[in-house]
Design brief:
single chain; 160 residues; 5 helices; globular
Amino acid sequence: MSGGVTLRDAVPGDEALVAQFVRELAEYENLLHEVRGTEADFRRALFGKPPRAWALFAEIDEQPVGFAVWFYSFSTFAAKPGLYVEDVFVAPEHRGRGIGRMIFCDLARRALDEGCGRMDWSVLNWNAPAIGFYRSIGARAVDDWTVQRLDGDVLRAFAG
C-alpha cells in the first residue's frame, strides 16, 4: 500500500471491470473504434485453462482507479521468458500520485519472480506524458520501434 493505493489481482467476476478500463484506455488513445473484446473474451483469457493473460487493479478505498493487463512472451536470444505489458491505465483524475509507478514496479517484481529476463511494452508515439514516465523509470526505446523495455540491472534496480 502506498498513499492509500492498493493493488489486487483480477479474480473471476472482474471481467466487466477489465472491459470498462480497456474502453477508457481506448478512448484516451482515440482507438475506441478498435475495441472488440467482450466480457466473455476476458473471462476466457484471464481465467481459462490455461490463462493467456493476467490483470491487476489499482484501488483507492476499494474503488478501482487503474489497471494493467500482461502476458508472458519468450526471447530465443536470451532463452528466457519476458513479461509483456499489454495495457496500463490510470484514470486521469488519479494521475500524478505514483499509481503508474506502483503498477510497473509490481510487474517488474513479477517478471523477476517468474524468471523473466525483461519487460516489454509499446507506447503511441504521440503520448509524450507516458514516454516521459517510461524514461523516468529507466525504460529505453528499442531501435526505431516504440516498444519499451526494462531488463538486467535496470529491471532489478526498479523492482528493488
